[in-house]
Inverse folding.
């Protein structure tokens, strides 16, 4: 009877976290990712011509965001650990919303570079902060499910955001005579500022402060999280410190794996609208602006479904190395294959496979760092992985554009994408053989099967 009561408290506590926190943080992520990738929708719809940008210049503008982002990523996540997620995530949102709003009036390539850099500075710490925040609200056995629900926001950003951006761009001259692409920047920036203000009052830093949990639920969550923390620090005391997180070989291996996935993710995000815009020259097919927006969204809806189902399997079995490696190898093959398709339909179908592969792996990947890191080490480790991984955000944007200008096609750039995803799969299998979970790194029997 006592076990049944404990199970009931566990179920209700996790359900409330899933419904009260995850949708709101996912909405923040939705707006974050939309603001970050809005440049990809603006590029083929007036921005590149108005600002006289080459493919390499557009790629540089896309990628320079990550320079500012990377410089402040670890300090920002440590500040979140110190001041609390509620204040810090709200501050980040308002800051990036203000910078995103300024894109409405950008008038030169130099101005675009400056604003993209400042946007990275303003956004630094949001994503790893959100991952850390949600990870520290639930025991490890529930993290795959919680992070999968959160991660659904990213593919859905394009499913909803691409048609939304196309709709805003079509309102050329509607708002004080602004060009459509400028009005689009305005339309996606304002929600970030409003959400940041709401987040200040809505988010809660820890279970003990949540009014929407019962006393029993608060006690159970607090006890479970403290038990897991004690197990990690008790068995591996050296892994509790910031210094050891930065010197941990497994952290750096995860950095490289994440780099491979993010390189593929942003190569698609920044250049897919441009590739679709080129279907007329390649295949002789013509699409309206709204149709191009809808086509851009196609790969991401199946990706959201696959993300959910793959993560549900990972929750049931425990996250294993193949939950991350198989998607990496699938993406490595599908990216170059898309170049050899003979119609828009088959090309988009193959790109869809790539999108499904990337999004299937990412939420399961993020369950790994907090298995063996805690406290400040977890904050620094998660931020470091995201920082090094997001070097791919800069390099994929710039290299894809530069290689296109050099070769005249996307063939070489997409083979580079496939190569990095292949590397991610190989490294995942390698570290799963070297590092196997034990009682100190995994808090329950389900996740004890995870890496192997």
């Amino acid at each position: 009877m006592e076990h049944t009561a404990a199970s009931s408290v566990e179920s209700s506590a996790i359900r409330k976290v899933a419904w009260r926190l995850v949708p709101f943080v996912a909405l923040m992520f939705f707006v974050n990712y939309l603001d970050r990738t809005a440049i990809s929708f603006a590029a083929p719809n007036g921005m590149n011509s108005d600002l006289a940008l080459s493919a390499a210049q557009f790629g540089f503008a896309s990628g320079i965001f990550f320079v500012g982002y990377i410089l402040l990523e670890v300090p920002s996540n440590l500040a979140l650990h110190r001041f609390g997620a509620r204040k810090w995530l709200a501050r980040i949102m308002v800051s990036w919303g203000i910078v995103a709003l300024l894109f409405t009036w950008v008038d030169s390539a130099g101005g675009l570079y400056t604003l993209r850099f400042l946007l990275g500075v303003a956004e630094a710490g949001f994503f790893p902060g959100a991952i850390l925040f949600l990870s520290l609200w639930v025991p490890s056995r529930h993290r795959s499910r919680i992070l999968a629900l959160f991660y659904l926001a990213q593919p859905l950003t394009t499913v909803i955001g691409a048609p939304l951006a196309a709709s805003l761009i079509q309102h050329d001259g509607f708002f004080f005579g602004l060009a459509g692409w400028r009005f689009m920047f305005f339309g996606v920036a304002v929600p970030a500022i409003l959400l940041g203000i709401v987040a200040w009052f809505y988010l809660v830093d820890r279970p003990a402060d949540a009014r929407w949990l019962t006393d029993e639920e608060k006690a159970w969550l607090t006890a479970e999280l403290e038990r897991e923390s004690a197990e990690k620090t008790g068995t591996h005391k050296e892994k509790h410190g910031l210094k050891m997180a930065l010197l941990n070989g497994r952290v750096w291996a995860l950095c490289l794996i994440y780099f491979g996935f993010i390189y593929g993710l942003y190569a698609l995000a920044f250049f897919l609208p441009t590739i679709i815009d080129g279907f007329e020259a390649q295949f002789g097919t013509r699409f309206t602006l709204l149709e191009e927006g809808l086509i851009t969204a196609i790969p991401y809806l199946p990706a959201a479904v696959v993300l959910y189902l793959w993560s549900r399997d990972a929750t049931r079995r425990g996250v294993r190395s193949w939950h991350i490696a198989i998607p990496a190898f699938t993406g490595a093959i599908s990216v170059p294959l898309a170049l050899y398709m003979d119609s828009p339909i088959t090309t988009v179908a193959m790109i869809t496979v790539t999108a499904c592969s990337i999004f299937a792996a990412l939420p399961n990947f993020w369950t790994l760092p907090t298995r063996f890191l805690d406290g400040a080490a977890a904050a620094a480790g998660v931020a470091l992985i995201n920082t090094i991984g997001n070097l791919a955000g800069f390099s994929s944007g710039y290299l894809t554009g530069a290689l296109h200008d050099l070769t005249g096609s996307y063939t070489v750039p997409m083979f580079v994408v496939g190569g990095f995803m292949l590397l991610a799969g190989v490294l995942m299998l390698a570290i799963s053989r070297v590092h196997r979970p034990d009682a100190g790194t995994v808090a329950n029997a389900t996740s004890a099967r995870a890496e192997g």
About this structure: Residues 2-205+224-449 form a domain with the Growth Hormone; Chain: A; fold (CATH 1.20.1250.20).
